[in-house]
Structure formats: structure tokens, C-alpha cells
């Protein structure tokens, strides 16, 4: 799978776990730590708590492999399924992930392995078998022993018994438990006894015989034949004949069953019910040794109605208890015993106090006791032991035996080994080294001897003595002795307690130098080192990342990679200080050196939002530097979204002769000698059609440096409009122009109302366009003809003008119109003349009103109202002129309204009597004052 797909899958796994495909991840097998007698000799199986390894191949080297039980999900105690462990894959793509079999019902389950880099998975069937776990392996009358049962059928009854080691039981014979009848094919029967030993039942009607298969099923042979079932706990039987039996036949049965029998069987329960996981619990009281079960060796025996069963050894007699049931090497454990021979001692003979895996014992040493521990007259004793060096995955039982052969055991889990850590793990003669030890004897001031040994564990020289604290730890320093430069075994040992820890230590110089030791990601670094194990192998990591997997050490102890000096490119990581660990694989000694990352691999787009048919500039920094001493570093470009991905073609313009950017040759984008590149991607390459939306662009080089940037496809924009719908003589004509991308060499033509070409812009070349936000515009000041803006001169025709925008191929992009009117000052002069004429007309009308007042005969109120209207009209004219001096036509219109009002006043005043002349006169004076004010304003406007 290419790097593009790996990166894409990794990103999709992080974002869309639900889209992860179910695919095969190489070969997967299961390895058990110990062999257990089970019915699945040819299958993977285990019991609750058993340590098992899932082993497989062909996953991503150095990446995390996750192991799931039944369901690919976080662990759920409700489901009893989910993530149970994870591990890091080896450089070969192999992996080994250990786990403990979880609590689960009997039968088939599934292990799922998931490669977190690619999201690929593989599965392997795994079978869970029944298991019982008593809390003690021995006990005396009245002792309480808790028996846990696991891996039985779910929600069924389980019987718990104590039986002799032969599981003999009692013979049962039911001469008549039912009879057949004509036409009846199915029968429900109950045996005379319950608690049947699986595999022992035989049922017959004299013609058809049903045989017990041991798993709760029966098979009928002879006669019509048939099938059946047996519940071993309740003794309930069902028979299903394949055909009608031959007449009324008596049904009989033989089997083995259990009942309380002295020294043979003791029943604790006939029906504790299992839960959904096939688990149950029973607290058992050890029976009386005189009347029920004598001293001796027995079996705890549990079984369910479907034939699932398990046993565990138990002795009535000597018993021990521990004050703690787990701890590391060096733990001090108090052991109390009962039921032992008071004429014997404990620990006076080798092998009487041991920790064992059930096969291989390791001596546990008694604290501060010479000649063993006395057993009192009641058969009791107490002693303390120190846990010796053990394989903590296997050793889990402490056993005590006296000279008379009384034996008792108790569970103990070793949780950690004795270890020492030195810093550094090498040094020239006379160098001071720091040492820390832990999981030694948890006793204050106990001596620990530090010594140097050869690889064959031949003693070379004692170095220094330390003392432990009550946590079993010690700290200090020591001086590298004057011995030949070589790799040795450094051992810290407490021989009195059989506790020791080793580590490899190299006397002599080990050094690694980086050149350079700082720089951005993609920096080309030379790594030199010496003092390593001659003719062996080495590897290196960069922080948490694998850097070099398969280096060689030459005969002089110098680091090699292939046939030359090791080099590498700084991987894509965040800026910071990173530790490079160079491991001598033979001795497991690490040499550390630091590298400072100044900048991280990055990609920038211009623009970050663009429509289809657009050239996008892509600039990258801090990729693998391509210099004269290395092969060309290639680049891979991918654009993708949640549903698909596309390869991108990104180009540069190069001159192949001098390797300088020129507009001569188009070639694939590559990095320069500083790890940078600049290229362009043409949307309109005919291969990629992208919908509007959000995408991601991945850029990966051939050295696996990687950067990612978001890109949005937007709707294509091309828009142009005249800056105003109406221009006046003297205005400069311009347009608002914007486009998703620069329309280079486009131009605009304009025609007057007579269809005469009036003006043509210069071509809008690359320098004419300016980017604003996500679009390109042509600023107003760049819209010229021969460098001159389009100004509407005095002789420009008035009316509707037309314009068209053309592309570089002279094809129309858009078109429109605008209006041209006279200059503003010309219009104002005409409007002032109209105002003067209107005022003259108003004056004449007022004179007519004055002459007509003498003849007015009616309605004084009407005349006053009319006069007031004239005043209001005149005032309105004043206000209009004051507020809009540039629009004198409004004042003229107001004056005309005043004249009309005066004429109305004349008509209304006809017939008034002399009694109202005074009132009318006052109104006319106000009207005349308004008209005078209006005339003064008009003069100021006319200038």
C-alpha cells in the first residue's frame, strides 16, 4: 500500500472510526504460557485469568497493535468485551500481545487484532473452558474456603462437591422410570437420583438405547432411534424418538451419581446459579474429619447440567495462610501453619519452604532462624520468608512441607523482579556511575554486593557494597574499575536471600555525535558513533519514533549503516528538544544524544479557498533536504475528503540545465537543497472534478516527512457593474470588477447612445489585478485607456450608453448599460430661472388678490384660510431652497404652489365686506414677507 493510502487511512481512522474496513492482518496465532488438559487439543483455548499471547505478522512496523475481546470497542464490564491490551509492532511487522483470559461463559469467543496505523483488523476464534478456583489448597474442619467457578454455561445451576481423587461416585440403577406408548414420540423423565456424573448415563426401553455423550446430549440407537438431553444436576431427562416405539415398553436407566458418602463425597451445593458470564460463588465449610471426610487428598469438583466441569486439588489436614498474597521479589511474607506434626520442624531441610510454578520450586529462605522453626503441640507454626528471584509470570504458589510429609500451599503472585539501573551504562576507567536498585530484600541495612563478571559469569572484581532500606531499594555511586575495555555483567547480589539483578556494563568510551545537532524537520543529519560491540548490531529511536532499525557495528566498534556512515532526515515532529537513543543490541546499552528541532514540516496554499479552474500555489517548507550527496527527494500530493481521495499533479517551471527556476520547462515539483519547494496545481487539469466543500491536502516526501493543510472549493465568481447607474458630464466612468481568479488580458469597450465606440480600456494584465479576500479585483485607478481615465467631456452625448467586458480571446464575459446626464451646475442654473419666473407669476397673482378684496361679499373664514395657505406655500418654498440649494426646481415648484394659493384666495375673497379687510390684510402681509425672503434666497443661488 502506498504512502498516500497509509496517510489517508490513518487520518480517516482518527476521524471516522466507523469507516474502518475489516481486513486480514497477516497471520494471527495464539500461544498459551502453560499447557492445560482440555477437550480442545487442536484449538486455541484458555481459562479465566490464564496468560495468553496473540501473535501475528504483517502489521505496520513500530505502530500500536490493539487486542480486543469479542467486540472492537473500549472495555465494557457490562458487555464483558472490548480492548484488553495493546503492544508495539516489531520492525519486521510481527507482534506479540499478551492478555489474561477475561471472565466469560463457556465456549466460543473471538479475539480481534487491530493495526492502529491502517485500521485493518484480523480475528481468531478462542474457546473458554470451565475453571474453579478455591481460596485455599488445604484446610481443617470448620475452615471456610471460597470456591469461585468460571466459564460454565450462563444462567444454569452448578453443583459444588468435595470428592475422592478417583471421582468414583455411586452406581445408580432405575428399573422403571417410565414407559412408551403408541403414537407418543417425546417423553420427560426424572432419574431417581440427581447429581449425575456426566458421560455415565444409559437409558433403554429394551429396543432403543440412548447413550450419554458427556455434554448433556443423548444419542439413541436401535429401534426407531432418536435423541435426548440430560441435566446432570437435576437428573431431568428428555427423550425424542425418531419414530413410534414398538408398543408399550418399560424405560430403565443406569448411571453414576453423587450423594454424601464418608471419605468419598461431600456435597456443598446442588444448585448455585451462574450469571451472564457463566460465573458463580460458593463459600464452603470443611466437613468433620472424623465422621465425614478424613485427613487426606481430595478434589473440589464443580459441574453444571450441560456437562461443563472442573476440579482442583484440596487436602484436609495441614494448612497455611499468608499475610500478603502478592508482592515483588524481596517481599517479606509471614506464613502461619496448622495441622502439621509437632515432632517436626519447618525449614531445617532444603525444599521444605519453596515458591513454585507447580513444577519447578525455588527455595524461600527463612529469616533469622538457624535449624528451622519448631511446630508447637497444636501443630501450629509461624515464620517469615523473603521472596527470592523468580520468573514473575509463572511462580504463583508457596508450599510448606514438614518432615512427616504434611504439605500445604497458598497462592502468591510475584509482581516484580529485582532490578538495577545505572546511568550511564558505560564509562571509561575511573568514571563515577550512578546506580539504583529495587526489589531487593525489604529489610533495613541488609548488604548488597556489587561486582563485575564476565559474560560467562566468571567473577572479575568486587566493586562496592550498598545497604537496602525497608522498601528493598538502594542508591549510590561507584567508580568504574581499572579493567580491560570490554562489555561485562554488573551484578548486585544478596546471597543470603537468593536475590540478585544483572545488567550489561561497558568499560570504555561509547559516544555518538550528530552533525548538525539542531535544525528544522527534514534536516539531513550525519550520525557517527564508536565504542559499540564489535561486529554486532545497533538501532536508534528519535523520541518515540523508530529512526534506524538495522545498523551494523564494524570490527572497530564504529557505527555503520549499509556500507557507509549513518545518515537520516529529521522526521516530522513538533519543535522542541528530542533525545535520540542509540541502542547497542548485543548489550542493550543505550547512548543518548539530543537534537533540537527548530521548525516543523509545513505546507501553505495561495489561495486557501478557490473555485474549479484555478491555479493554486503550493509552498512547502522543512521537507527532506535534497543536496548533491543524496538521491532526489520526491513528493507525493493527495487531496481527499471523507469519501474519496485524488492524486494531484503539482508542477514547477525549471531549466534542466542550471536547475534554476525559469519559465522554460514544466516539471514535477521537487524540494531544493533546504527542503523547500514552491509549485502550482491547476484545477483545470481535466482529471479532478471537486464539488464545493472542505478538503484536505496531504504532502508526503520519499523520506516520509509529511504535512497537511485544509483547502476549500468555493463557487466560481465573475462579477462586473458600472460604479453608478447614472454619470454626469465631467464624471469619471469606472466599474466594480471582481473574479475568483485574474482574467488576465481582458478589457472593456464603451459605446455612446449613437452606437459610436467612445472608449476602450487597456488590457487588464497580471499587474492590474489585486487580491482582496478570496477574489481578485481591478482597482478603479487601473481602469484606463492609454493611461488616461475615461472622463465624460462637455460634448459627450446624453442618454443611455452600453459597455461590454471581453476576455483575452475577445469573447464576451459580461455587458450592461449606464445613463449620462448634464452636469449638475447646468441643471441648477435652469432651475433657478424657472424659480424667478414662478416668483414673478406669484407677485402678479397677489396683486390680483389685493384688487379683488374690495368686492368680497362672503365667508371671511374661507378667505383667511386661503391667505394662510398662501403663507404656508411661500414658507415651504423658503424651506425647500434652504434645504436643497442644489435642486432649485423644488423652490420654483413651491413658488408656483404659492401663486396658485393666492389665486384661490382671490376667488374666495370676492364678496367680503369691509369688516374683514383688516384680517385679510394681515394675512397678505405675512404672505408678502415670505415671498420677499424667497426672492432674496433666489438671488443668492443665481449668484
What is the total tally of β strands?
75
CATH fold group of the largest domain? Immunoglobulin-like
Termini separation comes to: 88 Å
* Biggest sheet record: 8 strands, antiparallel
Strand arrangement, major sheet: 13-20-15-16-17-18-19-14
- What structural class do you assign from the helix and strand content? mainly beta
Number of domains: 9
Task: Give the overall average pLDDT.
Answer: 84
Helical fraction:
10-25%
CATH superfamily of the largest domain: Macroglobulin (MG2) domain
Layout of helices and strands, plus pairs?
Blueprint (H helix, E strand, L loop, with lengths): L2 H13 L12 E5 L12 E2 L4 E6 L7 E6 L12 E7 L6 E6 L6 E9 L5 E8 L2 E4 L3 E2 L4 E7 L6 E8 L5 E10 L6 E5 L11 E3 L4 E4 L4 E5 L4 E5 L5 E6 L8 E8 L7 E9 L6 E6 L10 E9 L4 E8 L2 E4 L3 E2 L4 E7 L6 E2 L6 E4 L4 E3 L1 E2 L6 E2 L6 E6 L10 E5 L5 E5 L1 E2 L4 E5 L2 E2 L4 E7 L8 E7 L5 E9 L6 E6 L6 E9 L4 E9 L3 E5 L2 E2 L4 E7 L6 E6 L2 E9 L5 E2 L6 E3 L6 E9 L4 E9 L4 E5 L2 E2 L4 E7 L13 E6 L4 E3 L2 E6 L4 E2 L3 E4 L8 E6 L10 E9 L4 E8 L4 E5 L3 E3 L3 E2 L1 E5 L7 E5 L5 E4 L9 E3 L2 E3 L12 E2 L7 E8 L5 E10 L2 H29 L7 H24 L4 H22 L7 H26 L1
Parallel strand pairs: 2-8, 10-24, 26-36, 38-44, 46-53, 55-64, 66-75
Antiparallel strand pairs: 1-3, 3-6, 4-5, 4-7, 7-8, 9-11, 11-22, 12-21, 12-23, 13-20, 14-19, 15-16, 15-20, 16-17, 17-18, 18-19, 23-24, 25-27, 27-33, 28-32, 29-30, 29-34, 31-33, 34-35, 37-39, 39-42, 40-41, 40-43, 43-44, 45-47, 47-51, 48-49, 48-52, 49-50, 52-53, 54-56, 56-62, 57-58, 57-63, 59-60, ...
Helix pairs in contact: 2-4, 2-5, 3-4, 3-5
Amino acid at each position: 500500500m502506498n504512502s498516500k493510502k497509509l496517510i489517508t487511512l490513518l487520518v480517516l481512522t482518527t476521524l471516522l472510526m466507523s469507516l474502518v474496513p475489516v481486513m486480514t492482518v497477516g497471520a494471527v496465532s495464539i500461544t498459551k504460557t502453560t499447557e492445560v488438559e482440555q477437550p480442545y487439543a487442536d484449538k486455541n483455548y484458555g481459562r479465566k485469568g490464564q496468560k495468553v499471547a496473540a501473535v501475528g505478522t504483517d502489521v505496520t512496523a513500530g505502530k500500536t497493535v490493539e487486542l480486543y475481546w469479542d467486540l472492537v470497542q473500549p472495555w465494557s464490564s457490562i458487555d464483558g468485551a472490548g480492548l484488553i491490551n495493546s503492544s508495539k509492532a516489531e520492525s519486521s511487522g510481527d507482534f506479540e500481545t499478551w492478555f489474561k483470559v477475561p471472565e466469560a461463559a463457556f465456549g466460543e469467543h473471538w479475539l480481534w487484532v487491530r493495526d492502529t496505523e491502517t485500521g485493518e483488523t484480523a480475528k481468531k476464534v478462542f474457546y473458554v473452558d470451565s475453571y474453579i478456583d478455591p481460596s485455599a489448597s488445604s484446610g481443617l474442619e470448620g475452615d471456610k474456603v471460597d470456591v469461585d467457578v468460571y466459564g460454565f454455561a450462563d444462567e444454569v445451576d452448578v453443583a459444588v462437591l468435595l470428592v475422592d481423587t478417583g471421582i468414583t461416585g455411586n452406581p445408580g440403577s432405575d428399573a422403571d422410570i417410565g414407559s412408551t406408548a403408541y403414537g407418543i414420540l417425546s417423553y420427560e423423565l426424572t432419574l431417581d437420583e440427581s447429581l449425575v456424573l456426566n458421560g455415565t448415563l444409559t437409558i433403554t426401553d429394551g429396543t432403543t438405547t440412548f447413550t450419554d455423550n458427556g455434554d448433556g446430549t443423548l444419542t439413541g440407537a436401535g429401534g426407531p432411534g432418536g435423541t435426548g438431553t440430560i441435566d446432570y444436576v437435576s437428573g431431568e431427562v428428555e427423550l425424542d424418538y425418531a419414530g413410534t416405539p414398538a408398543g408399550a415398553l418399560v424405560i430403565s436407566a443406569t448411571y453414576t451419581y453423587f450423594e454424601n458418602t464418608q471419605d468419598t463425597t461431600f456435597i456443598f451445593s446442588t444448585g448455585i446459579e451462574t450469571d451472564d458470564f457463566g460465573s458463580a460463588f460458593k463459600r464452603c465449610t470443611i466437613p468433620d474429619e472424623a465422621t465425614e471426610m478424613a485427613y487426606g487428598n481430595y478434589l473440589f469438583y464443580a459441574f453444571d447440567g450441560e456437562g461443563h466441569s472442573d476440579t482442583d486439588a484440596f487436602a484436609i489436614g495441614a494448612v497455611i495462610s499468608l499475610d500478603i498474597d502478592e508482592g515483588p521479589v524481596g517481599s517479606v511474607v509471614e506464613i502461619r501453619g496448622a495441622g502439621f506434626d509437632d515432632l517436626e520442624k519447618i525449614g531445617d531441610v532444603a525444599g521444605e519452604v519453596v515458591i513454585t510454578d507447580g513444577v519447578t520450586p525455588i527455595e524461600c529462605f527463612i529469616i533469622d532462624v538457624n535449624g528451622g522453626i519448631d511446630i508447637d503441640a497444636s501443630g501450629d507454626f509461624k515464620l517469615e520468608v523473603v521472596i527470592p528471584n523468580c520468573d514473575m509470570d509463572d511462580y504463583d504458589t508457596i508450599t510448606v512441607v514438614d518432615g512427616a510429609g504434611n504439605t500445604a500451599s497458598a497462592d502468591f503472585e510475584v509482581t516484580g523482579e529485582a532490578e538495577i539501573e545505572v546511568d550511564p551504562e558505560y564509562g571509561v576507567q575511573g568514571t563515577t556511575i550512578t546506580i539504583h536498585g529495587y526489589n531487593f530484600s525489604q529489610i533495613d541495612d541488609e548488604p548488597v554486593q556489587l561486582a563485575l563478571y564476565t559474560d560467562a559469569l566468571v567473577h572479575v572484581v568486587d566493586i562496592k557494597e550498598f545497604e537496602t532500606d525497608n522498601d528493598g531499594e538502594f542508591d549510590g555511586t561507584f567508580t568504574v574499575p581499572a579493567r580491560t575495555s570490554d562489555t561485562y555483567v554488573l551484578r548486585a547480589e544478596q546471597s543470603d536471600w537468593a536475590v540478585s539483578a544483572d545488567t550489561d556494563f561497558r568499560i570504555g568510551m561509547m559516544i555518538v555525535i550528530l552533525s548538525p545537532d539542531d535544525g528544522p524537520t527534514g534536516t539531513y543529519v550525519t550520525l557517527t558513533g564508536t565504542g559499540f560491540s564489535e561486529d554486532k548490531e545497533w538501532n536508534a529511536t528519535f523520541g518515540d519514533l523508530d529512526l534506524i532499525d538495522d545498523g551494523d557495528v564494524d570490527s572497530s566498534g564504529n557505527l555503520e549503516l549499509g556500507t557507509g556512515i549513518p545518515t537520516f532526515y529529521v522526521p516530522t515532529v513538533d519543535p522542541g528538544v528530542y533525545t535520540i537513543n542509540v541502542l547497542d543490541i548485543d548489550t542493550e546499552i543505550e547512548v543518548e544524544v539530543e537534537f533540537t528541532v527548530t521548525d516543523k514540516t509545513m505546507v501553505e496554499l495561495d489561495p486557501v479557498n478557490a473555485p474549479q479552474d484555478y491555479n493554486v500555489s503550493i509552498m512547502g517548507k522543512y521537507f527532506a533536504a535534497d543536496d548533491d550527496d543524496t538521491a532526489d527527494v520526491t513528493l507525493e500530493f493527495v487531496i481527499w475528503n471523507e469519501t474519496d481521495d485524488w492524486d494531484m499533479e503539482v508542477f514547477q517551471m525549471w531549466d534542466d540545465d542550471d536547475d534554476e527556476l525559469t519559465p522554460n520547462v514544466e516539471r514535477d515539483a521537487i524540494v531544493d537543497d533546504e527542503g523547500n519547494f514552491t509549485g502550482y496545481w491547476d484545477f483545470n487539469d481535466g482529471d479532478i472534478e471537486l464539488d464545493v466543500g472542505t478538503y484536505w491536502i496531504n504532502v508526503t516526501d520519499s523520506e516520509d516527512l509529511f504535512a497537511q493543510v485544509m483547502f476549500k472549493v468555493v463557487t466560481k465568481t465573475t462579477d462586473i457593474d458600472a460604479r453608478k447607474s447614472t454619470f454626469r458630464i465631467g464624471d469619471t466612468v469606472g466599474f466594480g470588477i471582481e473574479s475568483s481568479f485574474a482574467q488576465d488580458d481582458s478589457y472593456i469597450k464603451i459605446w455612446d447612445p449613437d452606437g459610436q465606440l467612445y472608449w476602450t480600456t487597456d488590457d487588464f494584465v497580471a499587474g492590474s489585478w489585486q487580491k482582496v479576500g478570496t477574489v481578485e479585483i481591478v482597482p478603479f485607478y487601473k481602469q484606463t485607456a492609454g493611461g488616461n481615465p475615461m472622463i465624460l467631456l462637455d460634448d459627450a452625448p446624453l442618454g443611455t450608453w452600453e459597455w461590454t467586458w471581453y476576455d483575452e480571446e475577445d469573447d464576451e464575459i459580461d455587458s450592461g448599460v449606464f445613463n449620462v446626464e448634464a452636469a449638475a451646475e447646468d441643471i441648477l442654473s435652469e432651475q433657478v430661472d424657472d424659480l424667478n419666473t414662478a416668483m414673478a407669476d406669484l407677485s402678479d397673482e397677489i396683486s390680483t388678490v389685493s384688487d379683488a378684496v374690495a368686492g368680497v361679499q362672503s365667508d371671511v373664514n374661507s378667505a383667511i384660510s386661503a391667505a394662510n395657505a398662501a403663507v404656508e406655500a411661500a414658507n415651504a418654498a423658503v424651506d425647500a431652497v434652504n434645504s436643497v440649494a442644489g435642486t432649485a426646481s423644488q423652490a420654483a415648484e413651491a413658488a408656483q404652489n404659492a401663486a396658485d394659493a393666492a389665486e384661490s384666495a382671490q376667488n374666495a375673497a370676492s364678496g367680503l365686506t369691509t369688516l374683514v379687510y383688516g384680517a385679510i390684510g394681515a394675512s397678505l402681509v405675512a404672505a408678502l414677507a415670505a415671498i420677499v425672503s424667497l426672492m432674496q434666497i433666489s438671488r443668492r443661488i443665481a449668484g
